[in-house]
Amino acid sequence: MAQPRRVTWTRLGIIVFIGGTISNLAEFALAVTVQTGVMLPLIVLMAIDAAMIAYFFMHITQLWHPEE
Amino acid sequence: MTTTALAHAIPSRLRINRLGLWLFIISECFLFAALLSSRYFILGLYRAPELNQPLGLAITTILLLSSLTAYSAEMSAAAGNQAGFRRYLLATLGLGVLFLVGVGVEWSEAFHFFPPQTAFGTLFFSMTGVHAFHVVSGLLVLLLVYVHGRRHPYSATSYWPVEGGAKYWHFVDVAWVFIYPTLYLVG
Fold first, then answer.
1. Interface pTM (ipTM) of the complex?
2. Rounded to 5 degrees, what angle do the CA atoms B143, B110, B122 make?
3. Domain B13-42+53-185, second-level architecture
4. Which of A7, A65, B20, B180 is most buried, most CB within 10 Å of its CB?
């Protein structure tokens, strides 16, 4: 992996954390306020949350770009 | 075959390590997928009304924050910043323990409202229990990485233990991203 710049990874990490928190809050608000039909939006929010962590924190692209 | 060509043909140790860890993580995904599907198969969309949803949200945020600190520890190690690596890894360990304390509080409430003998209790304790076991094993791995890093500091070119430990910790977080809505919000 190339040497990351501190400012770059700090900013990226905080953005992913804020994005994940917003997603969790949205899930919570949806489940508390809406009684039916929450399944699909919850699945979408879960997938976004998991994809952000897998892409930015777990560097999943290393699987098909091993030189990264 | 020349030495250079041979070096390109043989995958590096790091690539093999990464592939091995990803295969392990994928195999773990099947375990959690089975648990998640069993929740819908057995209970449908039923959810126990006594579940402490705000506490669930709180510990989810704690785990997400621990992912941020684990990522920061990895990036610090990649930059050769030993002090940053140690500071962020200790923060990750602390947040992981805090998450477990939150799960413990939930369990004490759950034993009262929906004990393991009930259908919801069985699934609740199975899912949170298996996940908590992964949290404990992740904490042990990160603790080993921390101790190893103190004795033999990681360099910018050699920090695989940090990367591997952090990846596993992120996986534990991803698993909870699916467990939290499935148990606490659906229904």
1. 0.90
2. 85
3. Up-down Bundle (1.20)
4. B180
